[in-house]
Each structure stands twice: as structure tokens, then as C-alpha cells.
Amino acid sequence: MLKLLVILPLRRFGLLIFLAGIQLTTLSQTIKGKIIDAGTGEPLVGATVELIKDKQVHATYAGLDGSFTLKTGTPGNSALLIEYIGYKSRRIENVTSGNIGVIRLNIKEKNLFSVIVNSQKGRETDAYARKTERLADVVLNIVSAKAIEISPDITVGNVLQRISGVSVTRTSSGDGQYAIIRGMNQRYNYTSVNGVILPSPDDINRSIPLDIFPADMIERIEIVKALTPAMEGSAVAGATNLVMKKAPNDLAIGANLGTGMNSIFFNRSFSGFSSSGVDFSAPSQTHAPGYTATPADFSVKQLNFHDVALPLNAVGAISIGNRIFKKRLGYLVAGSFSRQYRGSNSLFYDQVAISTDPTPNSVHLLAYQNRQYSLLQTRTGLHAKFDYAFSPGHNISFYNLFLQLDENQHRAYNENGIRPNNGPGEIDYYDRVVFTRKNVYNSTLKGTDKLSDRLTADWTLAYSIAKSASPDWIDFSTFKDSAKASTLYVSPVTHSWNHSKDEDKAAYLNIAYAPSKNVEIMAGGMYRYKDRNAFYQAYKLGTIAPGGLARQPFTDVNSVQFGFYPASGGLGAQFDPQNYSGTEGVGAGFLQAKLTVQEKLQIVGGARVEITDQKYASQQTDALPGKTGKIHYTDVLPSIHLKYELASDQNLRFSYFAGISRATLFELVPATTAGDYYNVGGNPYLKHTTSSNFDFRYENFFTTTDHLMAGVFYKYIVDPIETAFYFTNGGQTLTYGSSNPNAAATNYGLELVFVKFIQKWGVSGNYTYTHSSVTTAKQLTPAATAGSVSTFPNQTRPLQGQADHIGNLSLLYKDGKAGFEAQLSFVYTGKRISIVNGYYNLDYWQRATSQLDFSAEKKLKHHFSLFLKITNLLNNNIYYDLLAPNYAASNKGLPTQSNPNKILIQRDVFNQSYLAGVRYKL
Length: 922
What we know:
The protein is mainly β.
């Protein structure tokens, strides 16, 4: 009975607790909603939401899609306060539980002579990038400064690999250097800064190495895939426009500082050298004409190497900007600096013999190298922009940019020769030391004048200069007779100097007339004058054997005795045909009209005329044709772009444009040099490339973060410039280099871009399929019969650098309340031709690659945040193969040559790179 009396009250108490729980749940308050920009509809990620009731405050933040959920235990009416930087606050009274729907915030507008000035922060957001894509006249893709900041990348070259339709070529450090747009290599696209094409420090092509640009100086990157008449026409694949950061509306100060390391140095040391005091001029340049160089003119200081066990990298940047004098004068001054120790390990088959045994074009590997790269890269970037508004519609800006990339490269490797019995032959030990300095300077003056309500003019004056120097490039080696030998001997050493300079002066003028709100007519023109020169000189020094010995034993580099080979006369190659100078003048005019029909259909069309004059003079011998050359041609480039607005957030686009690609002066100079198997040289008869390009794309901007783009493209390319055989010297000399195939090339594919956010999580990605085709002549070795000769059949292949499949997939996380965001990014590039070989079916193919990177940032108090960037998490190696049967018996048993269906030529290992630091933003 007592037990029953106890149990009954306990049951009743439990029932009361259960009922009370139901009541509390019923009385609890949950408020949901979504916060967007009143003008653009963009989600305001991270907007603060505060629920105020009886002096109590409950707060949360808007998620990646602008939505929020706020739970409290306080029932009844409350006030909701919504705030976001740069927007007017909004207070909503008498809020009860439930979904209150969409809340629209208005931007705080700052008027400058009745002209709204966009905030710097606004221009750098993903939302602004999506809005620009939606409103653009042409097909393009944009990466914002915010996306760059949170990405794992610190250079523009690496950022580009994440853009739809773009892959990159890589340097010996694994960094992206040149953009391949829609499967077409760098020669078929150009890079501009704020719309001005810059010259290249590269001594061979006109493309700017994009690893020279620090990513933290960029406001946004635009990949333009369809050109209007107002744009320069020298692009078949597209154009990369780098929009640099501008003056903010109010005082803004930014800085970051970080350090990190490359894990490849966990297992070996960094082997470096001092480049201080390196002589930038060859002996022939520092002395009077006719000077005979002596061994004393050449130093071995750079061959005294020092090891660093685990070197630390350093990166830093600072910027300050504001608008002063009643907002008339805006300025931004910024600088960026990085010092990075990079490295790679490589297996490389250096000597490849082509024979008829056992079949035509059989590959025999004669030697392989185990290479270790140690690279110290010092990257400096400075830029400053000033703009002044005289009155409404009248302003002027002055921009200056300086970029410099110094690289100390030590490539140490041994080469194992292969004997007929497959045993190791002579072993050579090589050291290559190269100090390279590349810099780009640009100064641009721009003005805009609103002459009337309907007439506007803008003009640009630009001066740019790009330089590259590789002073005293040294190749030094020692050898021993076999792996069992103990004595090292000294081989001849080579010192070379290579300099190039590319100087541009350009002027632009555009006039726009709008007779009505639905019609705009624009006309304009430009002229750019390029002055380019290149210098190359090499000296080969032999070794003097003491005591009349045939070979000089090696003890240390400072004890080696050098002397000139008699054939060189102590002068080196003073009159190498690779020394040349040249000019290029490009003049253009265009007429363009924009018409809007019933506020749904926009038509932009017109034509551009470009006139090209190229001249060059080389040190080629007078006995051969092409010592000097003059090339002149005119191109008419029509285009039309249709954009139909299916809804306020949906577009259909169709574009057609004609584009060209000019040969570089280097390609035109007939500087023939002896290659391993055939002569390699320039081609004064090279034609420029013309193309017809078509695009169709559907766009849906669900929000300014969530969007979908799907499109197809087709290109018909006449006179593509490809690497192939042709004849020089009046048809007497077979040469391998740039030439025009007899048949046109084609390139087509599809692109898909998507982004979706749900609360704190998001996923973004893109996929591009590309198929291209070009036909060129290749050499086929003869059958093994007396009197037989090589033939040159045509072979159809993809364009160099074109991968069938490329794609990106990123998992995003952002917690506005905690101030934390992270990104896990995957990049895939399918197999592609890396080097076009002159032999039939023996192109060098890069295998498909996949790279996984990670980055994160955590906000702290007082405008500080911490960031982390890790690249190549999966330690992706890069492989290059000959996709030919591995028939040769001598190849069997060599490292990584077990596959009978292909022959490995190179394997590069880069490992992971880590970077962590602190960022400050005011």
C-alpha cells in the first residue's frame, strides 16, 4: 500500500512535467525570414538580426542565402532590428512567431554631384560580380575580390584555373602561369589591365605570365568570351581583363601578413645560391666592340650553393584609400610582397631516339634524369590610382602599376646513360643556376566627359614597358665513367645572357551618342605602337687538364681551370640570329550600336577595322632570306550580340564575333638553330590567324548568389598558328617551328556553371567539354630498307593544351555569427597535348590531373582575422607520356616504363604548400 501511494504521485508529477513541456514548446517563439538588397535582390549574407523584447535581445545572422531563423523562449509581440554595413537599418514592430517573409534593405547612397558612388566593398563582392554578369552586353565570367580572398590562391595565375572554361599551364614550381581558354592556348587570348592591353616580359610570346600578378591587388577578374566592336580584336578564345582595386568612398586600410612552407622540403633541403652582384650585361656589352673575352670575365660565385633545412615563406600586403576634398579626389595606394621557397622533384627522360626498329617511329630512351628544383621567388607589386571629379560627368584618373618577379632557380640532377645491355652507362651530374627578373610597368591616364545629356566622350593615354632578363645563366656539369667509378671529371661550362624589352605607347578615344533611352551609338579608335628587342649571347668554356691530362678531375668548383674552345675565338655568339629588334603598329576604328526593343531584347552590333604593320631586323646572315621583314594586313571584324530577357533574372544570349591572332615578332625572325633531331626556327612567311566564333547561353540568376549558366560555343579558325614542319632557305632546309596548316581548325564545346547556397552551406562548380581538331604534317621514319626516306603524312590532333574535360567543384561554409568561412576546392583537367612533336603520333601528352585545395578564415575582434590556405592536399603529381607502344627492348626495366601502351617522359612531384596569416581591414 505504501508503495502504491508513492508511485501514484510520481506518475502524476511526471505527467505534469510532460504537459508543462508541451506548453513551453507551444509558447516558444521561432521567427524566420530572408534579407535581400531592395534594389538588386541579392541576399545580404551576414546581416545582423536582433529580436528585442522587454529589454532582452536575441541575435543571429543571415545565412549564405540571406535566410535566418531565430528561436527564443519569449512569446508575444517583439521588435525586429535588421542591420547590414552600407545599408539603412530597418526596424519591424509587433513581430510574432512564424515566417515574416522577405525583408528588403536599401543601400546608404552617397551623392557626389548627384552621381551615386558605389562603395569599394560593394564592387568586390560576389553579388556585384553576378549583377555585372547579368547586365553585361556579352558572354563573360567574373571572379570577385571576395572570392579570390577566401580562395587558396595568392596569384592570378592560380585563380584562373577555377573559372569556367579555363585551364592553365604550369611552371616548374607547379604554379599556374598562362591561361588556356576553351582549349586554346595563350597565343589565342590576351590580357588587359583596366581595359588596356599590356606588353609581355616573355622573350618568346606576347602573353603576360599571370603568376607575376599578386591576387590581393585585384578587384575582379573578367574572362570575356565574346568580343564587341569596342574591344580589341586580337583574341580567338577570349580575353582576360584584370580590374584593379579603386579608391573607396571612405577611409579604408587593409593589410595582411603570413608565413608558410612547402612540404617537399620535409624530406630534403632547399639548395639555393646568391644572385647578388650578378652581372646583368655580357662581356661584349660591357667592353668596346671587338673585345676578346677571357675566363676571368666569368664568375663561379653562383655555383657555391647553400642548403636551408626547412625554409619559411613570407607574404604581406598593405593598402590605404579614401575620398577627400568633398569626395572629389579619390586615391588608393597599395603594395604586395611575397618571398616563397618552392620546389619539385622530377623524373625526366632527356634523350629520346627515333628509329625504324622494330617499327617506324619507334622510341628508344637513351638517358634519364632525376631532377631536384629549388626555386626562390620574390614577387613585388605596387599600384596607385587617383581620380578627380571636376563636375558632374567630368572626371579624370591616373593609374600606375609596377610588377616584378625575381626567381633564383637551382636545378640539380644526375643523368644516367643507358648501355645496350640495359646497364647504366656514363653518369653526369648537372647544376643549372638561373636568376630571372621579369617586370611590367604601366601608366594610364583616362578621362570621361559628358558633353551633353546624350553625348559622352572618353579617352585613354597609356605607356607600358615589360622587361625580362636572365643574366649569366650557367650550365655546369661533372661526370664519371660509370656508377662504380670514383673519380669525377669536369665537363665544359656554358654562360649565357638573355634580355628582352617590349615597350608600348597607346591612345584610345570613344564617343557615345544616345538619341533615346533605347538607342546608343558608339564610335572610336585606338593606336598602339610596340617597340621590341631581344638580346642573346652564349659563351662555352672548356676545362684545362693539368699536367697534360685528357680530362680535369673535379675537387670543387672554385678550383676548376677554364679556357675557351679555339672555335669560339673567345668571343661567344656575338652575332646570333636570335638577336633582333622589331616594331608593331596597330591602328583600329569601330562603329557600334546598342538597341533595346520593348525592354526585353538587347542588340549590340557593329564592326571593327584593325590595321597591322610589323617590321623586324635580325642578325641573320645576308646569305639567307628573311634577315629583315615587313608585314602589313587589314582585318574587318564584325560582331553581333543578342540578349533576350526571359524574366528579370533570366537571359538568353547569342553572339557572333570575328577575331584574329597575330604572330609574334620572335616567330617571324628566321633564327634557325640546331635541335636534337631537326632544325628549329622562325618563319617569316607565317600568316596571322582569323576566326569566326559563335556562342549561345542560358542564364538564370535565382538570387545574386545562386545562379545557373549553360551554353555552347563553336569556332572556325583559318590559318591557325601551329607547330609543324616547313621549309626555309628557298625550300632547301627542313625546319620545325610555327607554321600555318593547309586546312582550317575547328573548336566547339559546352559550358555549365552553377552555384547554390542553403543557410551556412554552399556548393559551386563548373564543367566544360571541348573538342578541337587541326591537321599538320609530321615526320614518319622510313622502313628499314636501303634507299628509303622519311615521309611527312598529315596527322589530325587536338589543339595544343586542349583537354576534353575540365571542371571545378567547391564546398563552401560560412557562419556569419561566428565570423568563420571555409572552402574545399577540387580542380580537374583532362589529358591534353603539352608539346607538339615533329614526329608522327609522338606528341607529348599530359595526363589528367586533379587537385584538392583548402582555405579558411576566422574573424576576430577589432577588424582582424586569421586565414589558412593549403594547396595540393592529395599530392597530385603531373605526368607526361608518349602515347605510343613501348616496343623497344632497351626501354624495359627502366624506372616507370612497365606500361606497354605508353612511354613515360616526365613525372613532376610538388607536394603540399601551407600558408597561414593574419588580415586587417578597416
